[in-house]
Amino acid sequence: MFGYVGFCGESPLTLTVTKLAQGLAAGQYSSSELVDDVLRRIEAHPELNAFITLDSEGARVGAKAADAARAAGRTGPLLGLPIAYKDIFCTAGLKTTCGSRMLADFVAPYDATVVRKLKAAGCVTVGKTNMDEFAMGSSNETSFFGPVHNPWDKDRVPGGSSGGSAAAVAARLVPAATGTDTGGSIRQPAALCGITGLKPSYGRVSRYGLIAFASSLDQAGPMAQTAEDCALLLAAMAGFDEMDATALSAPVPDYQASLRNDINGLRIGIVKEYFGDGLEAGVADAMWEALREYERLGAQLVDVSLPNSAHALPCYYVLAPAEASSNLARYDGVRYGYRAPDYRDLEDMYKKTRSQGFGSEVKRRIMVGTYALSAGYYDAYYLKALKLRRLIAGDFVRAFAHCDVIAGPTAPSIAFALGAKNDDPVSMYLNDIYTIPVNLAGLPAMSLPAGFVSGVPVGLQLIGRYLDEARLLNVAHKFQEATDWHARVPAGF
Amino acid sequence: MNKEEIEKIAHLARLGVSEQERDAYAEDLSRILGLVQQMNAVVTDGVEPMTHPAEAALRWRADAVTLEADRDLLLALAPQARHGLYLVPKVID
């Protein structure tokens, strides 16, 4: 309904994945033409710093193969679609840096399962997007490769950690990208850049080949212009995987089939704790406007409470660093990645390699995690946080007894200025107060564009029951049928 | 957090820390731990710890070789390797 916006003349790149699939199928353009257009646009916008690695040659080869397959009779909604991967997804033969000096020259020996599946569906890899180092950050400023700039206002952050993917989709450099979300890293940058992002239920998408940050929280998902596009991408990404012990065997439903379901009578839970202190007034106004739109669509607003959500931030900042300190112990300068050039002995090599290879936020979190897990502190920090996690997850179970989805802000504020929150790690962490509880509980959630404040986008977060991605996508799609926030393109793109 | 604590944790994490960094860590970690200590306000007696969102029993598989590693490919990723082995500084005199 709101596909082509026309800011970029003849380029079909402002189109959604869904429209591109139709155009490709109808022969209006080839995958090779699309890929050339993508590469031209990426190269025309180096100021965003959205990409770490571009694979022009591989993309052209991939597009040609997709065009040949189509000529030979193959079909499929993602056949020939150019896509970018957050640089945390391992890609065989193409650099995977995770935004870190530690892996600046690392070439993975295999594809992540998500990459393998999207390739099998016909997607063409164009490159790897910038991100906060090891996905630790909410502004994309911790990347070893420099910050990403928000396409709506280049002096502002795009959010993080999947900031490169969000900026690239928002600027229509690519029609779709992947992200990962440990505490909000798909949803928060989606909100700040004005795109649609989905964090699936824990276990819905395989984590094999994602560089691990916090293994009980990490989950991969799609980032695109619309919920309809996210439905197409999730269908290709989701499913059981032998290679991930936590990947669920539950069948992947037909997300397209339920996308257009009527939402008359839908009960939307409004979390009172999500509208309290700390929420910017402009963001709150946009939220209420979005909720009124849902009422016009026949939904009913229900008050719910997540009384323990205030404890989610401290809980997360024990558990995520604890898991990270263990996961990142593998970077020792022996098997792959950076090794310091000069050292006295083995221990000195470890210490120099790790202090030179990691940036400051990553080191801070390794230190916090190591402390929380060290002798004498385990019960006070780690065990206490695990108990709080149970209480936080329990809140959602009780809330969902009264509603079908939960709606509220994705982030407490709009995109802030680059450098504004670098002095105090805790002020940066507050960006994720509404997203973190969802990861702790393992639930699916989305962010979708819901208006503008000071010329930059605001995101509406929808949270669903465990494995209820189909409903989330349906509820998001109905909003996007009735509004055009998701179709807005930043000036100059 | 004091200097000694920072040094002890940095050693456990095998991170080298300069003197200036030590002061910055002491300040940052104290702030983060200040945040984390808000957890103490919650009574959690009798609450079962939740380690994972998917608490179902882990899947079993047959004890069989499913993946053959390509030794040369993997060793090619190493900062230093020789004679099919990873090279590290001497650990035994």
Q: If helices are DSSP runs of H or I spanning 4 or more residues, what is the number of helices of chain A?
A: 16
Rg from Cα of chain A:
21 Å
CATH topology annotation of the domain at 1-42 in chain B: Histone, subunit A
- CATH fold field value of the domain at 12-262 in chain A: Amidase signature (AS) enzymes
Any idea what the shape of chain A is? Answer: globular
Number of strands of chain B: 2
How do the strands line up in the largest sheet of chain B?
1-2
- So, CATH architecture of the domain at 12-262 in chain A? Alpha-Beta Complex
N- to C-terminal separation of chain A? Answer: 20 Å
The termini of chain B sit apart by 37 Å
Low-confidence stretches of chain A: 1-9
Structural class by SSE content of chain A? alpha/beta
Largest interface (CB within 8 Å) is between:
A-B, 70 and 51 residues
Low-confidence stretches of chain B: none
State mean pLDDT of chain A (0 to 100 scale).
Answer: 95
What proportion strand of chain B?
under 5%
Q: Can you list the strand order of the major beta sheet of chain A?
A: 4-6-5-10-11-9-7-8
Classified by CATH, the class of the domain at 1-42 in chain B is: Mainly Alpha
Radius of gyration of chain B: 22 Å
Which descriptors would you attach to this protein?
heterodimer; A: Amidase signature (AS) enzymes; 3-stranded mixed β-sheet; globular; disordered N terminus; B: 93 residues; mainly alpha; Histone, subunit A; two-stranded antiparallel ribbon; 3 helices; 35% helix; 4% strand; flat
Summarize the topology.
The complex is a heterodimer of chains A (493) and B (93).
Chain A: H1 17-25, H2 31-44, E1 51-54, H3 56-71, E2 82-86, H4 113-120, E3 124-129, H5 163-170, E4 176-180, H6 187-193, E5 196-199, E6 220-224, H7 227-237, H8 255-258, E7 267-271, H9 281-296, E8 300-304, H10 312-327, H11 346-357, H12 360-373, H13 379-399, E9 405-409, H14 425-429, H15 436-441, E10 445-453, E11 456-464, H16 469-482
Parallel strand pairs in A: 2-3, 7-8, 7-9
Antiparallel strand pairs in A: 1-3, 4-6, 5-6, 5-10, 9-11, 10-11
Chain B: H1 3-12, H2 19-36, H3 71-75, E1 81-82, E2 85-86
Antiparallel strand pairs in B: 1-2
